[in-house]
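ok so for the tutorial part 2 we go from a plain amino acid sequence to predicted structure tokens. step 1 is just haveing the sequence, like this:
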Amino acid sequence: MTFKHLAVPLVCSGLLVGCGGGGGGGSDASDTPQKPSAYVTLDQSSVMVDEGGEATVSLSYDASSEVSVSASDEAVSASIEGETLTLSTSEVDRPVMVTVSITSLVGDDEATESLSLYVRNASAEPLVTKIDNLLDERDNLLNLADDYRLYEFFVDFAYLGGVISYGDKATRLSQFDADAADSYAPLELQIAALATADRDYEQGNISDSTLQMELEQTESLLFDHAAYGKARLVEISEFSQVIAPGFVPATLSYDPESGLYSRFLSNDEFGTYSNGDYQFSETFAALSSLVRRTPTDSALCEGV
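step 2 — the prediction. this is what the tokens look like for a chain of 304 residues:
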């Protein structure tokens, strides 16, 4: 009797084992919930914004994560709302490159994504454009090419009109020698210094006020150098008066419309702009083909 009573629970126990009793032996590992992982994705890797402006970038991350954002420069403030990253910029005195970092944290899992933000110093664009134009015109300004074109034409005209001999013509042309002027070397050095300052500014190493001072120093030397060209033109005024009565070389100045330093384009005495095109007055119409109106203009009328 005792043996029979003991056998029953043993048999039942065996049946339980064979059936996966207890319910734990036959579970599927694929049914285990996956732990969320941290990630951040951005729809842009770089953005350009004017100073005082704002930009938005779309992003995505795990809904359960903690998300934070930081910027490498105080010129930029950043915030995240939903799936939108908002970037706001303050006023700057130079171009600024900022790294914006977005971090997603899920438990111990962390992911960071970055974008580059270029803050443009929009208020200094006229200054930068003026400097770029001056540097592009470097050779013309050093050689006083626009003045020489007029000078050569007036001397050639006098020769063809029998006013001067060929020898006198050659002598007068040789007397216009811009690179021999005392003002040439200082201007050449200062233009090189301006080019260096321009690069430093673009790299964010100097402020726009420092760049402005470099330009002012360059223009001061440029106007000194331009006085040489004006003096040479005044010396042959008896020839120029035949072609353009009343012509007196004006002081060199910058013309924003054309981007050129000119004796004519910024001076209403000689003509005016009409629909973006500079038109000489009737009095000085004979000079029209001798004066450049854009940086890409070549000499429209060479010496005879």
